[in-house]
UniProtKB/TrEMBL annotation:
InterPro entries: NrdD (IPR012833). This is Anaerobic ribonucleoside-triphosphate reductase-like protein. One of its GO terms (molecular function) is ribonucleoside-triphosphate reductase (thioredoxin) activity. One of its GO terms (biological process) is DNA replication.
Length: 56
């Protein structure tokens, strides 16, 4: 029950501040240069989702 309340509160806050929100672009390094993921074709977007992320 508490989870639903938090979800509703979060959704309400997001709706109240919709005009302040900005689009977030995700960039990735491809062949030595950085490109936004949104410019990828469907196949490349699928490959990007399947990548394994790690920290050194």
């Amino acid at each position: 029950m508490q989870t639903n309340t938090k979800q509703i509160e979060t959704q309400t806050l997001l709706q109240l501040h919709e005009e302040k929100r900005t689009k977030c672009l995700v960039y990735t390094r491809v062949m030595g240069y950085h490109r936004p993921v949104e410019s990828f074709n469907i196949g490349k977007k699928g490959e990007h989702k399947q990548r394994t992320h790690f920290n050194e």
